[in-house]
Amino acid sequence: MSTTLNDAALDQLFRNARTYNRFLPQAVDDATIATLYDLLKWGPTAFNAQPARYIVLRTPEARQRLAPALSSNNREKTIAAPVTVIVAHDKRFFDQLPQQFPAYDAKPLFEANPALVETTAARNSALQGAYLILAARALGLDAGPMSGFDAATVNQEFFPDERHAVNFIVNLGYGDPATLFARSPRLSFDQAVTLL
């Protein structure tokens, strides 16, 4: 992988990509959602654990189930979004390690250490959620990630078996550029990076 992406691709993934709160009334079909997952699944995770699980809410009725958990700022835009993805993690992700990580038997590391399970699941499902956002952008979709919700309410509604837990939520669709605010500034290299 020695080729740098061209400027158009870099613009689409990063420089011109925006967080959208409103989307055009254009559906996102199931084939696009499948392609989205087929891209994001290749992002690296510790021990190839892949702890993220995704609930894709495709209908207004499905998003209404989520509405009571959302902050007032997030409720209307989520109900109106074409697709909403609940990015969660599987608390028993390590059960799949013998297949996902055959290099050696890593499962006992996690079985004996609940704190390691929690940090690994949370960190790596967040990474996978970020891969989801980049995969969406690569496919011409726009994303509106958010954390303004009550996690206990989401978990009770969508994960009553308590095996999974929500990390964050992402609205997906084709963003309405007329609803964008001016872009917020980013930290400079000198503010954010230390070279040693």
UniProtKB/TrEMBL annotation:
<dbReference type="InterPro" id="IPR000415">
    <property type="entry name" value="Nitroreductase-like"/>
</dbReference>
<protein>
    <recommendedName>
        <fullName>Putative NADH dehydrogenase/NAD(P)H nitroreductase GW587_24110</fullName>
        <ecNumber>1.-.-.-</ecNumber>
    </recommendedName>
</protein>
<keyword id="KW-0288">FMN</keyword>
<dbReference type="InterPro" id="IPR050461">
    <property type="entry name" value="Nitroreductase_HadB/RutE"/>
</dbReference>
<dbReference type="Pfam" id="PF00881">
    <property type="entry name" value="Nitroreductase"/>
</dbReference>
<keyword id="KW-0521">NADP</keyword>
<keyword id="KW-0285">Flavoprotein</keyword>
<comment type="similarity">
    <text>Belongs to the nitroreductase family. HadB/RutE subfamily.</text>
</comment>
<dbReference type="InterPro" id="IPR023936">
    <property type="entry name" value="RutE-like"/>
</dbReference>
<keyword id="KW-0520">NAD</keyword>
<keyword id="KW-0560">Oxidoreductase</keyword>
<feature type="domain" description="Nitroreductase">
    <location>
        <begin position="17"/>
        <end position="174"/>
    </location>
</feature>
<dbReference type="InterPro" id="IPR029479">
    <property type="entry name" value="Nitroreductase"/>
</dbReference>
<dbReference type="GO" id="GO:0035527">
    <property type="term" value="F:3-hydroxypropionate dehydrogenase (NADP+) activity"/>
</dbReference>
